[in-house]
């Protein structure tokens, strides 16, 4: 949806036949922690060697963006938020060979450089070139591609998708099928692999198992989908917002719990409901207290607890040390343990081939100029995923 007119600065109108120009377009800027996002005219520089400039078509609003805006992650302001993006390659810098102008692509919050220790290890996916922990806010060469009224604007996770144009490293972008519906597949850039992948790829949920999922937002709902697809026979969903329960049930949750309405701690209720504890527990909220509750909801001997959410920086996770002896497993997981450039395009193909259905996760779609309404819906707990359309 072309909501804004784009102004090409400089004399050249045909990007194929002349040097790349700076683009002036609209973007959402967070000038400071907890400030209201402001839609501004920004300058987006051309991609440098090894970089890709993308015309965004859609971006989801993910819980991590909210963590960024609240200042719960250590990021630099002013910045352009957003990471769950789908778009079309507008131009590429020197040496870029994995994507070309006109390709449909997804942005990747966790890149895949294919050179670092994590990328070279068969089980690793947390690429050394990621910019989440910590978040420098700059490109790999230490500089920014965005500016507004002469001021440097930082990048968010080297993705920044709440903008009509963004620049990302080649290692943080991947080509997807030409017929992918761009108003939805942005979810496959983050929420779907993060949640669905945590269940099917990381935990490898087993048929007939009992799962408990803490947090029934976009990511937790994708976890539920993964548990269901893996044949779990019981899926307990935990959320303080009961508005999330009907959709969660439709996705496969068999029992819904609101911890605020229970007379006992939620882990005790899960223990009573299951008798022996859950086979698999997932934390998709990003709070230490729910991480502890997820851990204590698992079976003591063979339970597996997956931490999907990211707690605020400096938070410490405190667990009863003796409980680890009995054999249960605690595992962190990011982007479903997928090596992102290798695996994420296949999820898009699987969606196109009806092997996975992401449609129920897209509860709202709004044009970019209604960003504030989208954020209001998110904060009111009414969305699973609201997709911004450009
Ligand atoms: N108890 C139960 N439910 C709670 C509680 C609580 N104390 N607090 C909040 N909730 C519920 C909310 O009502 C909401 O339904 C849900 O938790 C959170 O959902 P969203 O929609 O706000 O967030 P998601 O699903 O988009 O994202 C959740 C993450 C945990 C993935 C995210 O916040 C995060 O921590 N991301 C960083 C980790 C990561 O892997 N990132 C990869 C790319 S984002
Ligand atoms: Zn995300």
Total helical elements: 9
Cα separation of the termini:
5 Å
Structural classification:
alpha/beta
* Radius of gyration based on Cα positions: 21 Å
Summarize, please.
The protein contains 9 helices and 19 strands. By secondary structure, the protein is α/β, with parallel strands linked by helices.
List keywords for this structure.
390 residues; alpha/beta; 7-stranded mixed sheet; 6-stranded mixed sheet; 9 helices; disordered N terminus; binds zinc ion
Structure notes:
Residues 1-5 and 8-12 have low confidence and may be disordered. The protein starts with 6 loop residues before the first strand and ends with a strand. It is globular. Strands 4, 6, 7, 10, 11, 18 and 19 form a seven-stranded mixed sheet that branches. The chain has a six-stranded mixed sheet with strand order 1-2-3-8-9-5, with no helix packed on it. Strands 14-13-12-15-16-17 form a six-stranded parallel sheet, sandwiched between helices. Helix 3 (191-203) packs parallel to helix 4 (218-229) and helix 6 runs parallel beside helix 7 (288-297). The protein is of the alpha/beta class. The chain is built from nine helices and 19 strands. Strand 8 (146-148) and strand 9 form a beta hairpin. Residues 62, 64, 83-84, 109, 190-191 line the site of zinc ion.
């Amino acid at each position: 949806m072309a909501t804004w007119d784009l102004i090409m600065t400089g004399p050249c109108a045909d990007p194929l036949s002349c040097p790349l120009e700076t683009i002036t377009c609209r973007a959402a800027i967070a000038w400071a922690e907890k400030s209201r996002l402001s839609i501004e005219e920004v300058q987006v520089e051309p991609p440098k060697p090894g970089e890709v400039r993308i015309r965004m078509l859609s971006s989801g609003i993910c819980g991590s963006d909210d963590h960024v805006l609240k200042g719960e992650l250590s990021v630099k302001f002013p910045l352009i938020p957003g990471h769950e993006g789908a778009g079309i390659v507008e131009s590429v810098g020197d040496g870029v060979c994995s994507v070309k102008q006109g390709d449909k692509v997804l942005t990747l919050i966790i890149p895949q450089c294919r050179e670092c220790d994590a990328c070279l290890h068969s089980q690793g996916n947390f690429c050394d070139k990621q910019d989440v922990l910590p978040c420098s806010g700059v490109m790999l060469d230490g500089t920014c591609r965005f500016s507004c009224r002469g001021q440097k604007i930082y990048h968010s996770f080297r993705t920044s998708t709440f903008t009509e144009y963004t620049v990302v490293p080649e290692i943080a972008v991947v080509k997807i099928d030409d017929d992918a519906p761009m108003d939805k597949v942005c979810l496959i850039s983050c929420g779907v692999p993060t949640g669905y992948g945590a269940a099917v790829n990381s935990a490898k949920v087993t048929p007939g198992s009992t799962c408990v999922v803490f947090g029934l937002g976009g990511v937790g709902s994708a976890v539920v989908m993964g548990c269901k697809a893996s044949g779990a026979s019981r899926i307990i969903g935990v959320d303080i917002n009961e508005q999330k329960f009907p959709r969660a049930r439709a996705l496969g949750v068999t029992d819904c719990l609101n911890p605020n309405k229970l007379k006992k701690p939620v882990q005790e209720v899960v223990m009573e409901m299951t008798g022996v504890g859950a086979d698999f527990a997932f934390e998709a909220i990003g709070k230490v207290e729910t991480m502890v509750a997820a851990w204590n909801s698992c079976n003591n001997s063979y339970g597996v607890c997956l931490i999907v959410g990211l707690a605020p920086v400096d938070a410490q996770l405190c667990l009863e040390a003796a409980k680890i002896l009995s054999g249960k497993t605690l595992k962190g997981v990011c982007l479903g343990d997928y090596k992102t450039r290798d695996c994420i395009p296949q999820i898009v193909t699987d969606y196109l081939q009806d092997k996975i259905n992401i449609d129920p996760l897209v509860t709202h779609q709004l044009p970019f100029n209604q960003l504030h309404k989208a954020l209001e819906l998110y904060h009111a707990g009414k969305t699973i995923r609201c997709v911004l359309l450009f």
